[in-house]
Amino acid sequence: MAYDPVQSLLAVGTNESRFGPGRIYIFGQKRVCVTMTPPRPASIKALQFCADKLIVMDSKNDVSVFSLEKNHLIASYAPPGHVVALVSDPSLDYCLSGLANGGYRDLTIRLPLPMADDI
Amino acid sequence: MAPFKIPNLWKERNPRARILPIVSLQLHPKDIGTLLIGYSEGAVIYSFKQNKAIKFFHYEVPRGAPGGDADPRAIDTVKYPRLTHAIWHPTGTFILTAHDDSSLVFWDPRDGRVIHARTIEETDINIPGKTSKAGPAAVKEPYFQINWCSKQNPDDTGLLLARGSPTTNPTRGLTFIELGMTPNYQTSSWDFLAGHFRNPKRIQILPTPPNASINTFLVIPRASPHFAGSHDPIAVLTSLTSGELVSISFPSGHPISSSNQLHVSLSFVHPFVTKTALAFVDRTRWLGMREVRQHGPNILVGGAEGKYPLKRHENRNIVQAAHADGTIRIWDAGHGDSIENSSVIQVDLGRAVGRWDQIDVAQMSMSGATGELSVGLKSGEVVVFRLNRNERAGQPPIPPGPPEGPGSMTDITTRADPGLKEGLLPLTMTNDQQGPVTALRHSDVGFVAAGYASGGVTLIDLRGPAIIHSALLSDLSGGRSKRVSIRRSNSQTPSQEYPTVLEFGIMTLEGDGARFPRPRGDF
After folding, report:
1. What are the two backbone dihedrals, phi and then psi, of residue B494, each rounded to the nearest 5 degrees?
2. Preceding amide of B251 cis, omega within 30
3. What is d(CA A95, CA A76) in angstroms, rounded to the nearest whole number?
4. Can you tell me the distance from the alpha carbon of B352 to that of B112, in angstroms, rounded to the nearest whole number?
5. Which of A36, A3, A28, A54 is CA-nearest to residue B306?
6. Among the four A94, B132, B350, B394, which has the fewest Cβ within 10 Å?
């Protein structure tokens, strides 16, 4: 779950179950609701709001970026290992992910996310 | 996307370590160039500007010290408990590391030394010779999540923890350790700083339902998205292992209802829905059915509503959903059309009946024209609610009086929630003690028909309110039961038949023009 006090939105991610793949629901005032699905059917592990984008980490180790304005996926990144922690800040352009793979432990930063007017 | 990699920093300190996952990451709340990385052995502060690790924090429990779990067999060895969380103080003055033996260790980031180590109940657990106050070593659950929250002033802090208490402890919930104002770092001695953590202002438990433990929680801040989302919280949204959500107001701990705070989809798990029913209400009538209730500020006001076609001449589909906490929520289903009245009306069934356990809703029936709702419970009670203004709003509630016996109606208008000014208020209730309610119908003219598992049917007139007619189905269908008893000559009693559907019809009698309801039973 994640909450953005600036835009006053709540994002809830669900687990994959026998009823269907994991989904992300974003709720706003009254009945405002948007549903998004990750690129591959998986459970949602972590959510982070970052400016006008939502960063999602799921159980299949994909880190996906969704645009809140357009309500669809902008980019998806598969880090070379099992992502354990995700940290970002609303004032940043990038996010940090901590991995825990056997051998070389990495910390990856992804540089400026695609801007809203990129196609 | 150009990845920037930071190698495993703990390997510099301990090259022999093989399995060393990262367990926690947090940016410094005031300095974006500093990162606190938690490995399973210890924590590291890394600076982006200098591109190297600045400080290492490795927690060691010396011989003779009880440690977090006070295991008497291991008291004479040096222990290195695994780290599970590493977080910053809201102004970056201290670092907290939590370990899997449920110890909380406070460090000074400038110096690298331990200021204080404690669990929720015990203090100074890393000092040798300190005996633990608890008797036999109880197995403690590891912490699932820790947030270092602050009030409006980021120096006034407290720790919010999920789990971490002994498994024998019956109260479940979040533990809030209120630390109070942080002492001035420059002018305080080590002992004074340790005392700040040793003696918190108070330790409070924000309760959650006892059957499930907390999986994760989300702190809802009032205004600031920074400080890791834990600045000046107004509420906490907790997700339990049972899959339910519970909202708790912070710091008082009162549960918040999701009725007009969260989206209707979330209310399906807040708590679980046990029964639903559908009614058709006229569009103009539903526009006027809103409730006025005292509640906290709205936490969700974002997003823009989309435009959908307006269905002007049709009835609205109104869903009534009964939840496991004794409330019924009534809302417009609105499928693909513009919902003009999107507010949810909440009915406090538990308060109306006067008890909080064993409230299992068996049947619900809502009358579209009058806006009245009747609810039948598995314990045999029938409760009727009506849309009204609460005369007693704001006054303290009167304790419920003894219920009347079977066959008469109990007036429950005094049992409304004092915070509810206008809405569906309890009107009357009856307990006929004929078994669970199996069929219920609320007519549009002020009659309620209830059928019970024992085969009885009662008619209630809401003008009294009074029970005007009772009948047993076996009397109404006398011929059939005889045939059944011939075949089953061994059985003592004929098979029980009970009503499953009741319908009201409007008829005229001998040109009289009078209307009266006629219940029909199906078996």
Report:
1. -70, 160
2. yes
3. 13
4. 58
5. A28
6. B394
SS3 per-residue string spanning B431-456? ECCCCCEEEEEECCCCEEEEEECCCE
Nearest to B269 by CA among B280, B279, B258, B260: B258
Mean of the pLDDT values across residues B308-326?
78
Backbone angles phi, psi at B413, to 5 degrees: -65, -20
From the list A7, A8, A107, the residue facing B5 with the nearest CB is A107
Backbone region of residue A20 per phi and psi (left: phi > 0; alpha: psi in -120 to 50; beta: other values): left
This model of the complex carries an ipTM of 0.77
Angle in degrees, CA B467, B470, B476, rounded to 5:
155
| Closest by Cβ to A9, choosing from B224, B303, B334 | B303
Q: Please name the member of A30, A33, A75 whose beta carbon is closest to the beta carbon of B265.
A: A33
- Token readout for B25 is 């990451």
> Residue B214: which of B283, B144, B271, B151 has the closest Cα?
B144
Among B139, B143, B147, which Cα is nearest to B163's?
B143
pLDDT in tens, B348-381: 888 888 777 778 888 888 887 777 888 888 888 8
Q: How far is A86 from chain B (nearest CA, A)?
A: 7
| pTM reported for the whole predicted model | 0.74
Cis peptide upstream of residue B225 (ω within 30 degrees of 0): no
**What CA–CA distances, in Å, run from B1 to A53, A75, B79?**
16, 10, 43
Q: Which residues, other chains included, contact B274 with Cβ-Cβ below 8 Å and sequence gap of 6+?
A: B322, B323, B324, B360, B361
Average pLDDT over residues B180-206: 82
- Which tokens sit at A13? 């991610």
Of the given ranges (B67-81, B82-96, B207-221, B277-291), which has the lowest mean pLDDT?
Answer: B67-81
Write out the two tokens for B227. Answer: 């400080």
Q: pLDDT averaged over chain B?
A: 76
Partners of residue B236 in chain A, C-beta under 8 Å? none
The confidence score (pLDDT) of residue B52 equals 80
The secondary structure of residue B389, as a DSSP letter, is: E
Structure tokens belonging to residue B303: 């997003």
Task: State the pLDDT at residue A117.
Answer: 34
Using an 8 Å Cβ cutoff, are B383 and B352 in contact?
yes
Please tell me the distance from the alpha carbon of residue A47 to that of residue A83, in angstroms, as a whole number.
13
Q: Sort B476 into a burial class: Cβ within 10 Å, 0-12 / 13-18 / 19+.
A: middle
Q: Do A12 and B302 touch (CB under 8 A)?
A: no
Give alpha helix (H) positions in B288-442. 349-353
Residue in chain A lying closest to B335 (CA):
A31
**How confident is the model over B391-448, as pLDDT tens digits?**
777 777 776 666 666 667 777 777 777 777 778 888 888 887 778 888 888 888 888 8
Q: Are strands B104-107 and B245-249 parallel, antiparallel or unpaired?
A: unpaired
Which one is predicted more confidently, B358 or A114? Answer: B358
Contact of B101 with B69, CB cutoff 8 Å: yes
Q: What is the 3-state secondary structure (H, E, C) of A6-62?
A: CCCEEEEECCCECCECCCEEEECCCCCEEEECCCCCCCEEEEEEECCEEEEEECCCC
Q: With b meaning 16 or more CB within 10 Å and e meaning fewer, what string describes B142-157?
A: ebbbbbbbbbeebbbb
Nearest CA of chain B to the CA of A99: how many Å?
A: 6
Question: Of B152, B142, B40, B156, nearest to B89 (Cα)?
Answer: B156
Q: What percent of chain A has pLDDT over 70?
A: 76
